Every structure is written in C-alpha cells, then in structure tokens.
Amino acid sequence: MANPNPNPATRFSSEKQPDKSGRPQGSRDRLSKEFMRALSADFETHGETIIQEVRTKDPSTYLRVVASLQRQEIEVRTPEDKLTDEEV
C-alpha cells in the first residue's frame, strides 16, 4: 500500500487527517468515550433498579447479558490431567 501522505514536509504532521470515511482521526474514540460516560452516568442513576427489572421481566435477556460478561475461555480438566506420564 502506498504512503497516503508522501509529502515529506507534512508526513509527520500532528494535524488530524481524515480517515477513508472522511472522519477526523480520533473521532470514534471520542464518541466511544462520550457514550461510555453517558452510559456510566445512567447506570449510576438507574442501574440496580433496571437490573432487577430485567431479571424479573425478561430473564433470558438477563442471562444473555450475564453470559456475555463472562470470560470466553474455558479450561477443561479431566482426572487424567493430574496423572504423570508414568502413571498413565
């Protein structure tokens, strides 16, 4: 892929350059930070009440959210894992 800014005078400029979508660099991060800030504020105000409401009115959604927050990696061990090579 060719250098998108081959001009040596501006190649390392600190000015924000639009990405291919026309959005200034960093705007997605700024949007994400603002969304998380708003979500956090809303959760602090209504969080526990909403969790209880979802748990009682829509248990499948509640369980889906709980499951999505769990680690995705599962380690499976069998009794044979404890045996040495000689014991196997």
Short description:
The chain has 88 residues and is an all-alpha fold. Helices cover 47% and strands 0% of the residues.
What this model shows, in words?
The chain is mainly alpha-helical and 88 residues long. The chain has a domain at 27-68. Helices cover 47% and strands 0% of the residues. It has helices at residues 27-57, 59-68. Helix 1 (27-57) crosses helix 2. The longest helix has 31 residues, at 27-57. The N and C termini lie far apart (54 Å).
State the main characteristics.
2 helices; mainly alpha; 88 residues; single chain
What is the residue-mean pLDDT, rounded to a whole number? 79
Q: What is the helix/strand order?
A: HH
Oligomer: single chain
Task: Give the radius of gyration.
Answer: 25 Å
Instruction: Find the structural class using helix and strand composition.
Output: mainly alpha
Strand content: under 5%
Helicity range: 40-55%
Summarize the helices and strands and which ones pair or pack.
Elements: H1 27-57, H2 59-68
